[in-house]
Design brief:
Elements (H helix, E strand, L loop, with lengths): L1 E6 L5 H16 L7 E6 L4 E2 L5 E2 L3 E2 L8 E4 L5 H4 L3 H7 L7 E4 L3 H7 L7 E2 L6 H4 L5 E2 L4 E4 L2 E4 L4 H13 L2 H11 L4
Parallel strand pairs: 1-2, 1-6, 2-5, 6-7, 7-11, 8-9
Antiparallel strand pairs: 3-4, 10-11
Length: 185
């Protein structure tokens, strides 16, 4: 299985790391030994609003070959909804089986056209911005509609990581990862 984590300027790092940490444990605990991922971006460096930078492993490369894309949120999602070149790049994920977002990452999935007939969620403060992009905005922590999974505000990223551990590996895998993280949420 191969995951593309979508990184961008103005990201909220907890949206990324909250889901990233549990999923990496699927590999290290050998629940999915052949789990691979790339840090994909449209720019050669990405940083949050406070200047913390991460260097992506793939820049502007097609997303079509991945099994899943995961789009975190952050203040950078608001202007990216109108960035044609960025959205064209995101649309290369059209054939990807699973499209997943954390918090306002759903605004990117929506602006790219992936949510048009789906139920979805986002940060509770951005429900109105999400409405034009989807069939129904749902006030739930995790919303799965066919091959699309969206989550609520920033802390839902850890819950998403554990949800995906169970979905992709097993309930036992999710329990073991939760135990190793000492996550009681």
């Amino acid at each position: 299985m191969k995951i593309a984590y979508i990184l961008f300027n103005g990201i909220t790092w907890l949206d990324f790391f909250g889901v990233y940490d549990p999923l990496t444990r699927l590999q290290s605990l050998k629940f999915i030994p052949k789990l691979h991922w790339d840090l994909c971006a449209f720019t050669d460096k990405v940083s949050d609003n406070f200047g913390l930078q991460v260097v992506p492993t793939k820049i502007k490369e097609s997303l079509a070959a991945y099994d899943a894309i995961i789009v975190p949120g952050g203040f950078g999602t608001r202007p990216l909804r109108f960035d044609k070149a960025f959205l064209d790049w995101i649309r290369t994920a059209e054939p990807v089986k699973q499209k997943i977002s954390v918090c306002t990452g759903s605004l990117i999935l929506g602006a790219a056209g992936f949510l048009s007939h789906r139920r979805a969620t986002t940060n509770f403060q951005e429900y109105d911005i999400l409405k034009p992009y989807c069939k129904e905005v749902v006030a739930e922590r995790i919303v799965e509609d066919q091959n699309i999974i969206t989550t609520g505000a920033v802390s839902s990223s850890i819950d998403l990581g554990l949800y995906l551990c169970e979905k992709w590996a097993s309930k036992e895998a999710a329990l073991q990862v939760r135990k190793r993280m000492e996550y009681r949420g």
